[in-house]
Amino acid sequence: MENSPDSAASLLEVRGISKSFGAVRALQEVDFTLRAGEIHALLGENGAGKSTLIKVITGVFQRDAGIVRIGGEEVAPRSAKAALQAGIATVYQEVNLLPNLSVAQNLFLDRQPMRFGVVREGEMRRRAKALLADFGLDIDVSAPLGNYSVAIQHVTAIARAVDLSARVLILDEPTASLDRHEVEILFGIMRQLAKRGIGIVFVSHFLDQVYEISDRITVLRNGRLVGERETASLSRLELIRMMLGRELAETTSARASAGAQTAREVCASFEGYGKAGYVAPFNLELRHGEVVGLAGLLGSGRTETARLVFGAERPDRGQARVEGAPVRLQSPRDGVRHGFGYCPEERKTDGIVAELTVRENIVLALQAKRGLHRPLSRREQDEIASRYVKMLDIRPPDPDRPVGLLSGGNQQKVLLARWLATSPRLLVLDEPTRGIDVGAHAEIIRLIRELCDDGLALLVISSELDEIVTYSDRVVVLRDRAHVEELAGEAIDVGSILAAIAADGASVAHEGRA
Amino acid sequence: MKGLPPVLITAIVLVAGFALCAMQFPNIASTRVVGNLLTDNAFLGIVATGMTFVIISGGIDLSVGSVIGFTTVFVALAIERWGMPPLVAFVAILALSAAFGAAMGAVIHVFDLPPFIVTLAGMFLARGASFLLSTESVPITAPVYSTVSDFALRLPGGGRLTAVAIIMLAIVIGGALLLQLTRFGANVYALGGSRATASLMGVAVGRMTVKIYMLSSLLAGIAGIVFSFYTSAGYSLSAVGVELDTIAAVVIGGTLLTGGQGSVIGTFLGVLIQGMIQTYINFDGTLSSWWTKIATGVLLFAFIALQQGLVALARRPVAKRAGAVS
Ligand SMILES: Nc1ncnc2c1ncn2[C@@H]1O[C@H](COP(=O)(O)OP(=O)(O)OP(=O)(O)O)[C@@H](O)[C@H]1O
Ligand SMILES: [Mg+2]
Fold it and tell me: What is the full DSSP assignment across A408-461?
């Protein structure tokens, strides 16, 4: 059996895996084969079962049926630790590190360099620094990880998994909170590892990235295997059809310019608004029926601008007006009172309440706005929940399921529904399509436009320039925590945004989505 | 890095409090008083060291007071009635208490039960068992006891550093090193951060839980032996409520009750603060000793409020995004 060429080449073999959660059949007889030295993309819609398959392989979930072989030998890890020992290193979708430990401790937890039973702090820090330097990060590794941004935490998690130098490396949506530059560094490292014979499983909703990095693609749909193909011989259209089971409706036509020129009423305006050490003072006008895009690199001040606008952060200068009247935005409550909504980027920490059901999560902000004295009746709640479940195609369409049990992308949709339900006058969306599959992605973009036609003012942050160009009436470009340029109308295109981001006009390669 | 600011505040409270006491009663600032303080609180310092590990890991151990009580009765009976050599009795009781802690840890992990409930059951169990052994106080007359009680290092200024105080200091130092320098210590913090995440990162969460509660009970056993040296008797009602004094010392020492942050040194300072208040009250002579409890309560409130403040501060997004790549 060692001699047969097939089993020698295949590093990880999964055969006939099934897994149910109560009545939900998350995986049904799924096969998956990873060869040594290949980068294998695992694709599918939100809720297709990608993360579940990974967790079954690594022993976080116990499978109902099927076998897993590594290098021809059957394994049945019963815990993440056992999977590590069997040679499988994983970065899970819900990036999991410990915010209370230092960056260095996180990188080397349970495998610190030791001498005489004592952790060699200095050596550990030195190695941590060197490891992160490979990813272009130069930070204080003895500070608690929680002090750093999500992106840095994500890079740390990836660096940890890469450094485990296992035979199999699994990355579940590793690029979701990375900027272009970091993605390139990660891809460089992945290619190096693959050359050394490590097999890599890569989950992503960014099809451009999939085509750039992967050798082979396996597609899941509704917990079943659809097929395995060579990336080079699979067209995008064909891939999308495999994922969705249907054609993708064409949605990315240029924005209707009909109402574009009519003067719109100002919904909210900000003059000389800013906070020292946070974002340089800026002027911003948000009009009814208009989408303003915020573009810039990670850490350029996009999220900071959004938080100031919503009231999640106190400004120390400038004046805000809503419908022409001066207002003070000192807390999120103020924002909500003036009819603002804010979908944050960090859905795990700032957003969903995992133990509550889909319905309860959706009505949360609406109920808060109405006040505790006017509770929504159960019928109203059901009505609102089922409307948004249908509108955003939340799966499974069960409003009574705890949100924590939904797949990552579906959690994101619930968060969006929560703010839509408050019928705000201004909605701030921070990376609304992150972690959302191609089908739902098109839906969300369509939805943004519809909302806008109904007179809502929108402020949208996105790293995907194609997307921003598609729906924005104006684009504000940020760099180094300052607003550096505002583009409007015809002037909006990917090239000019990139030029503004890069400042010196140096061309930066860009990636969008299918 | 690990909770330094709260420890610093505890230290300041201790020094300032001591200065105030010394201003009123200059005699307090002597090695004699300090030596006695260490001796009187030796058993508390020992259990509190174990409790620090438990609380940092996100748990709680309510059984320690009962384990101390059981230990004193067991040791007294083993030596006086069953004729065991003292050393054999000590080894036996330490093995027994370690096994007891390990069992509680295993139950907590396997059945996924709240530590509060499991150790509460442990508390009743151990206390009940000591009543089964004996309901009255059993004096210990073995010669080792007088030898150990008489042993002390002379301090300049007439103070005495007794054997039990030395044992306590050794355990505090050993505990601090274990927590700060070893892989085991790092895993304790990891568990306190999040059990689920620690498990995904490859920490053997079950084994860690067993070891942590085993350590706590083992130290409670040692504290029980020390307690029996201190009183030269075994009594089933001894150390009632000590678990609460212990938790108070740990929290005053800057350890987060929700886990993930804290230090053994802080706990030691917390023990000293409680001892200092007690000493002050003894010197005063007119105050009821219950004032110790009231002062401890006030301090607890202050420290919990302070920690909430610090935690809220640390959660502020400004700090959070300060290191963003650009
Ligand atoms: N712990 C759980 N309990 C119950 N159901 C679960 C659990 N985890 C996942 N599911 C369900 O299993 C299905 C597959 O989810 P999974 O997380 O694997 O999707 P995914 O392909 O990773 O999607 P995404 O792209 O959104 O991350 C979903 O219907 C989800 O609701
Ligand atoms: Mg997933």
Answer: HHHHHHHHHHHHHTT--SEEEEESTTTT--HHHHHHHHHHHHHHHHTT-EEEEE
A87 DSSP assignment? T
Task: Provide the pLDDT for residue B285.
Answer: 77
Answer yes or no: is the ipTM higher than 0.85: no
Distance CA A335, CA B113 (A): 41
Q: For ligand 1, atom 19, name the residue with the nearest CA.
A: A47
- The pLDDT tens digits for A225-269 are 999 999 999 888 888 888 877 665 554 444 444 444 456 788 888
CA atoms of B43 and B319, how far apart (whole Å): 41
List, in sequence order, every residue forming a beta bridge with A327; answer none if it has no partner: A320
Which pLDDT belongs to residue B271? 94
Ligand 1 pocket, mutate which of A19, A28, A45, A51 (most atoms under 8 A from CB): A51
DSSP state of A209: H
> Contact A163/A179 with Cβ under 8 angstroms?
no
Distance between Cα B160 and ligand 2 center (Å): 64
* Separation between Cα atoms, residue A241 and residue B117, nearest integer Å: 54
Binding site membership of A46 for ligand 1 (Cβ less than 6 Å): yes
Nearest to A198 by CA among A40, A316, A407: A40
Closest by CA position to A177, among listed A252, A260, A55, A91: A91
How many residues make up chain A in this entry? 514
| pLDDT value of residue B113 | 93
Quote the CA–CA distance of A262 and A276 in Å, as a whole number.
Answer: 36
Residue A293 beta carbon below 6 angstroms from any ligand 1 atom: no
Of A96, A142, A299, the CB nearest to B200: A96
Query: What region, left, alpha or beta, does residue A342 occupy, with left being phi > 0 and alpha being psi -120 to 50 degrees?
Result: beta
For each of the domains in chain A, give its residue range(s) and CATH number, in order of start: 10-247 (3.40.50.300), 249-339+425-513 (3.40.50.300), 350-423 (no CATH)
Walk me through the domains of chain B, giving residue ranges and CATH numbers. Answer: 4-321 (1.10.3470)
**Phi, psi for residue B226 in degrees, rounded to 5:** -60, -40
Check CB contact under 8 Å for A147 and B204: no
Q: Please give the residue that has the higher pLDDT: either B161 or A369.
A: B161
- B121 Cα to the center of ligand 1, angstroms: 38
